[in-house]
Write a structure and sequence with these properties.
Elements lengths: L3 E10 L2 E11 L4 E5 L6 H8 L7 E6 L2 E2 L8 H7 E4 L11 H12 L4 H14 L15 H14 L4 E5 L7 H16 L3 E5 L3 H7 L2 E6 L2 E6 L1 H6 L4 H7 L10
Parallel strand pairs: 3-8, 3-9, 6-7, 7-8
Antiparallel strand pairs: 1-2, 1-4, 4-5, 9-10
Helix pairs in contact: 3-4, 3-5, 4-5, 5-6
Amino acid sequence: MGILEIRDLKKSFDGKEILKGISLDVKKGEVVVILGPSGCGKSTLLRCINALESIDSGEIFLDGKAISSVRKEDLHLVRAKIGMVFQSYDLFPHLNVLDNLLLGPTKAQKRDKAEVKKEALEYLSRVGLSEKATAFPRQLSGGQKQRVAIVRSLLMNPEVLLFDEVTAALDPEMVREVLDVIMEIARDGKTMLIVTHQMEFARAIADRIVFMDGGKILEESEPERFFVTPESERGRQFLENFTFETRKK
């Protein structure tokens, strides 16, 4: 039994089935990377886990408690436990970095402002943004904004963190600084589900690879096994679209 359990999850949009009975268990402290072609349902799966999308059928459990049938007015409680970082940073442009970070914990969780500020400054230091605490989003690079967005999620103390293609909107030179932060979080033992097209990063960070296509999970395996000898023909075809040194081992 994992900290997060998904049972026969189905989701359709406009009559088209996007998720076709997804079942997945994630252990506490595990890093699961979800790979697959665009449109296969990866992002929809994350949004269903975080209750940003309703589900048609199936169940989602967190710590053994069903969260897929929670009342609408209690959805904020689910999202406090399952943090999500998106491609877009969604920072409030009229607030500086520190005020962006303080908003959720002090307003939604009613935590002490001084305590949250201390924790926020510690996180900013860890991600190399100490000097940006009073800067506004317009004064930050894309990579810096994404690191702030990651810190914002961490400050809510979620049990599970979801990352949805967080480097997709970044210039290539900014990608590494964001991926390094996520690697650091993984070393802290955080439970994470990551959707990415960064193959070398996926191989380095994952405890387990989940490969999806057509709304289904086609295979699950350890990173080395997937990248060297994928089980499915579709997995082999998918990897052929990428050329990177780690596949030559």
